[in-house]
Amino acid sequence: MADPIERVSIVVSKGSLEGVYPGLIMANGARMEGIEATLFFTFFGLDAIIDKRMDSCSVATVGNSAMRIPGGLKMPTLLGAIPGMEAFATFMMKKEMEKIDIPPVREFIEMIHDAGCDIYACKATVDMFHLSKDDFCPQMDEIITVGEFYEKSAGAQIIFT
């Protein structure tokens, strides 16, 4: 029998709804199972913890080969470029998530942090995008380097979403 997982460090690098939620769901699931969890946001994943952007994460409709239209048919990429399609897809996704009690990003971040998950922002990305600690939600614990992320993740399973 394999040893149980005791710690996970989850890297979130995409800022779309379908890029952010897998990491949030995995971190929440880890905490619910008593597993230590760390979230490390980098590149466009930072949108999930930037105070002014976290409420406006949307579904990527262009270039998403898995995008489906009602009825299960694949949605041609061209349809994703139609004005309003991204807003419509985002509305529909949020509506479906609400039906199964998945909270909005801000509320989910608060829940996960309150459950003991550490939340970090990537220093290189913060510097590259000219951000500061003041740009982030209060739940973001610290801006750290990749080296510090690895130190904090020693012994953890690292998961890239």
Counting DSSP H or I runs of 4 or more residues, the number of helices is 6
List the secondary-structure elements in sequence, H or E. EHEHHHEHEHE
Number of strands: 5
SS-derived structural category: alpha/beta
What does this structure look like?
- The chain contains 6 helices and 5 strands.
- It has 161 residues and is α/β, with parallel strands linked by helices.
- The chain has a domain at 7-54 and 103-160: Hypothetical Protein Ychn, Chain: A.
- The chain has a 5-stranded parallel β-sheet.
- Helix 1 packs parallel to helix 4.
- The two termini are 26 Å apart.
Which structural traits does this protein have?
single chain, 161 residues, Hypothetical Protein Ychn, Chain: A, alpha/beta, 5-stranded parallel beta sheet, globular, 6 helices
Question: In brief, what are we looking at here?
Answer:
The protein is α/β, with parallel strands linked by helices. It has helices spanning 17-32, 77-80, 85-99, 105-114, 123-128, 146-152; strands spanning 7-12, 36-41, 118-122, 142-144, 157-160. Helix content is 36%, strand content 15%.
